[in-house]
Design a protein that fits this description.
Strand order of the largest sheet: 1-2-3-4-5-6-7
Number of domains: 2
Helix content: 40-55%
Largest sheet: 7 strands, mixed
CATH topology of the largest domain: Metallo-beta-lactamase, Chain A
Distance between the termini: 53 Å
Radius of gyration: 23 Å
Order of helices and strands: HEEEEHEHHEHHEEEEEHEEHHHHHHHHHH
Shape: elongated
Number of strands: 13
Number of helices: 17
Strand content: 5-15%
CATH class of the largest domain: Alpha Beta
């Protein structure tokens, strides 16, 4: 399995295997020793391990469903006690492995492991507790996990730091540094002797998760700056929070540089439109990532998408209003939909036109106008449903349109939203769900 992990990583880098099929958020399993005393468990999310003279240091601990699996994978490599766990950030797939390790420490009579994180991380856990209902909904939608229940109990860190922290465990030195990017509480961990850099989710073998439409603010410019600071370390091994290791100084340099260049380009283009007085709509439909970067095997939009990053930049620098005066104090979506349906001759007319546009897109899926036709079909199908959610034909049209949109989507996020919508339109039993009042 060890050699297989690195072999697959090499094939992914060369583009011989696609991240569309071997998704960076997949649990691969197994364990590989990257270099002497440094191991890696590819999971959802990954766990990096350092064996020191006084026990293990882990960077991240994995997700709750896979905590025992990851623990056993690490134990196939080392029997040392867990001394310290470092949270790269507070997303729940990275921080829920601790109970397994702590139970083992109690059973063995070992000292309890210490958890270290950035000082902003506890506030994230606090927020997760008072938004548990919302996070349950949006993560069910994003990932399609019908039985997901957002946790309300967390293993808070024992020690936090602000900017940097030098840590020494069993004769092995670690340099921790705070960065902002996907989150405001990110920690990168640098082990200089082994030239190993654990970067958390600042690199994940995909277009950066800087635009997630259902989550809080991301920081794409600061993310790019963090990647450029990471370049100065001249790492030979890059161990990401998702995806497989990047091995070799040249590859690490290219991965970090390309990701930073992609983010900087999206930020620069969006700010240019904002500074010229454009609207968010102008930015959404004109900002494009550099083609040569979008084609990199490790920057494909399989999780997030560059288009979504435009929204993040706008929100960070320009606020929530999109520049359209009608949306500043809008009518309710349902009222607008009913008015449009009345003008069109009924909700069925909107639904029928949506299906015509869908047929046009499916008839010439590679044509320049196919994507635009699908986008328009989505608007019309949604307005038809908002106007008359109990109409069977409208429900079926909405389901067909968003099923097609999900099939065409490249990213987990878009596919999740569109699939959720299709299922909501005509669920089991054939009765559509009425929209919430606004």
């Amino acid at each position: 399995m060890s050699s297989d992990i690195l072999s697959v990583a090499d094939r992914l880098w060369r583009g011989e295997v696609s991240t569309a099929t071997l998704h960076p958020l997949d649990h691969i399993g197994g364990f590989v020793e990257i270099t002497d005393g440094v191991g890696f468990a590819p999971s959802f999310a990954n766990v990096s391990a350092f064996d020191t003279g006084d026990g293990l240091v882990l960077v991240d601990t994995g997700s709750l469903p896979l905590a025992s699996v990851v623990h056993d994978d690490v134990r196939s490599w080392s029997a040392s006690r867990l001394n310290t766990a470092i949270y790269s950030h507070g997303h729940i797939d990275h921080v829920f492995g601790m109970p397994v390790w702590e139970e083992e420490a109690r059973a063995q009579g070992w000292p309890a492991p210490e958890v270290i994180a950035h000082h902003a991380l506890p506030a994230r856990f606090d927020r997760y507790i008072f938004t548990a209902g919302y996070n349950t909904i949006i993560n069910r939608r994003q990932f399609g996990f019908k039985d997901l229940h957002w946790p309300t109990r967390y293993r808070y860190p024992d020690r936090t730091y602000h900017d940097t922290l030098d840590l020494s465990v069993g004769g092995v030195d670690f340099a921790l540094r705070h960065e902002k990017g996907e989150t405001d509480d990110h920690t990168i961990t640098w082990q200089a002797d082994a030239r190993v850099l654990c970067c958390g989710d600042l690199f994940i073998w995909a277009s950066p998760n800087a635009g997630n439409p259902q989550k809080v603010q991301r920081y794409p410019r600061e993310w790019a700056e963090a990647l450029r600071r990471m370049l100065l370390l001249e790492a030979e091994f890059l161990l990401p929070g998702h995806g497989l290791p990047v091995v070799g100084a040249d590859r690490v340099r290219q991965a970090l540089t390309d990701t930073a260049d992609l983010l900087d380009s999206l930020v620069d283009q969006t700010l240019s439109i904002m500074n010229a007085g454009g609207r968010l709509d102008d930015a959404i439909h004109s900002v494009r990532p550099p083609a040569e970067l979008e084609e990199r095997p490790y920057l494909r939009p399989v999780y997030d998408e560059p288009e979504f990053v435009v929204h993040t930049v706008w929100r960070q620098y320009g606020g929530w209003w999109d520049g359209n005066p009608a949306t500043l104090k809008p009518a309710s979506e349902r009222a607008l939909a009913r008015e449009l349906a009345a003008l069109a001759g009924g909700s069925g007319m909107l639904a029928d036109r949506a299906l015509e546009l869908l047929a046009l897109a499916e008839g010439s899926p590679e044509a320049d106008g196919a994507e635009e036709a699908l986008r328009l079909a989505g608007h019309l199908a949604e307005n038809a449903w908002l106007a008359d959610p109990a109409d069977d034909a409208v429900q079926r049209a909405r389901q067909k349109v968003f099923t097609a949109r999900a099939a065409r989507a490249t990213s987990t996020m878009a596919r999740g939203v569109f699939t959720w919508t299709a299922n909501e339109s005509v669920p089991e039993g054939g009765v559509g769900t009425a929209p919430h009042a606004h």
